[in-house]
Amino acid sequence: MPSLSDLGQLPKRLVLGRPVRSDRAGESLLPKRLALPIFASDPLSSVAYATQEILIVLTLAGTAFLYLAPWLAIAVVLLLGTVVLSYRQVVRAYPSGGGDYEVAFKNHGRFAGLTVASALLVDYVLTVAVSVAAGTDNIISAFPALDQHRVLLAVGLVALLAAANLRGLRESGRTFAVPTYLFISGILVMIVTGLVRDLFTDSPVVAETAGYSITPEAGFGSLTGLALLFFVLRAFASGCTALTGVEAIANGVPAFRPPKSRNAATTLALMGGIAATMFAGVTGLALAAEVKYVENPCDLEGFTDCETEPQRTVIAQLAAATFGGDTSPGFFVIQGATALVLVLAANTAFNGFPLLGSVLAQDRFMPRQLHTRGDKLVYSNGILLLAGFAALLIVAFDADVNRLIQMYIVGVFTSFSIGQWGMVRHWNRELRGTDDAAARRRIRRSQAINAVGGSLTTVVLLIIVITKFTRGAYLVILVMPVLFLLMRAINRHYSNVSRQLVPDTDSRTLPSKVHAIVLVSKVHKPTLRALAFARATRPDVLTALTVNVDDAETRDLQAAWERYDIPVPLTVLESPYREITRPVVDFVKGVRRDSPRELVVVFVPQYVVGHWWENVLHNQSALRLRARLQFQPGVMITTVPWQLESSFGRDEDGRGSGPAPGDLRRGLTDPEAAPYG
């Protein structure tokens, strides 16, 4: 029969499975085929909304500027290629998993390192919120009736993701591999099928919104000069969401199988090539099919149900047009795969956030609990923290992708820019340390790549901040300094604690004598045990101490003390205001004041109970005393437990077999006399 403790562990085991031994950590390392869906699902899944974000901005002016979409897509693809090449240099130079944080910290110093860390932490939370909200959108595109449950559905998906990641890295990799590869193959098949139909058949792909016209937003009807430039840059900034998650592989190098750096660089190249192909293909097919997607659905002239029906996503419109309508098997396969991969794209953050949190905790900038691995050798606290913040964002913004995405990618491009310029400084240092001509050529080539990457990402960061500031980016810009200051404060605390704990000569000096104080409320078994334990320590002075809050009870206590002939004098403290804690604390302070080198050990009897509600009925005075005494220097507090009958069988392993401590003195060693046999 399972024990009580086993039953208490049952929910945890259902979610996590069996715990994994520490010496099996190497078995959780990832081959490239699993690392790709784990670390690259975010940039790959951004194909589902990057084109959509470009169209949302361009259609603010009606259809007049849709001709710019191919040029914007080309610019995004070139930027993606440059960033991928830049990060291949990072994973080779810094394989420890710190990514941009480590690069910035080692090459620019603490300020830059913490700036990058705060940017990445914010962006990981937004990655989960945006990806899950976008996945929810695609589910609703297939099943519009679910629109009223949007927030609940999104929060539930975050909880499922957290549970999957808590089960362990390899298990989550296997879980996510099939949907990711299904999404890649499905999108590529859709692109090829659609383009073949357009180019070589008489039945071109036509989206359901192709015949709709768009009412331009006020002020966007006639854009020229600087206004037009700002408009184009805003559309480009929205399209740069295709680059989110590229840095995750640099942060996750330790999770790869050896040779770690080479496998990470290969995975990065594969991810970049696949993402660029898919993004370019979806954008081209959307323009060929004349897809319309707007910020406000009622701006679509022809969309008669704009007030009640959700607008179909770009991917949903393309799948329906390519495979024969929204009831075709192909449509549901694409929608299912897209929704799954968008939800699972948050897994990039579920791997990157805990790893970065662990590195920060190791450097004493985050709580040490984030550096601790859980039962499945994953950083459980980091996973739970990420899930909690992402769920809060989803609830606060109603799982609305258009609102959430305005805050997105500010952190990503902040870390991109600082990290790439940090790599330029890294290569400068490497150049100074080598005279080999071949090595210097390789270093200069890497430096040039990072310099180009740093220049482009810095320009894009400025564009993003300027064009998205009033639309939500200001929130991220406000949160990042708060995180920065919080990490500085945590580091200061740990540094202060370390400084105070450094051994000195006083740490080895023995106390001049030991004064033991036993707190007494009644003459009963717990008190007698505490006295016996105190005497066994052979203190120089032993005081039995009670507080007089009721004269009659105190006289009864003194009479019982004499009747049992207890060989320790009983000291009574007067308390006219019926306080217990203050007189005891004042007495202890007086002992310390009279003899500062004297060690005071306070023995506190305490009941051990088996039910939570029994704690409410007992031990309250003991808890208050311990809480006050622990702040007194030179004072030790020793709790002397006395197990009540309700605690029998509640030991750690839950077996409850054999005699409990104290049974011999209680006369409970006879099975018929013991309450539980």
UniProtKB/TrEMBL annotation:
The protein's topology relative to the membrane is: Multi-pass membrane protein
Transmembrane region positions? 54-87, 111-131, 151-169, 181-200, 220-246, 267-289, 332-356, 377-399, 405-424, 448-466, 472-490
Q: Which UniProt keywords apply?
A: Membrane, Transmembrane, Transmembrane helix
Domain of life the protein comes from: Bacteria
One term of GO molecular function: transmembrane transporter activity
Compartments in which it is found: Membrane
Membrane listed as a keyword: yes
One cellular-component annotation, GO:
membrane
Report residue spans for region: Disordered.
Answer: 648-677
Q: What is this protein called?
A: APC family permease
Annotated source species: Geodermatophilus sabuli
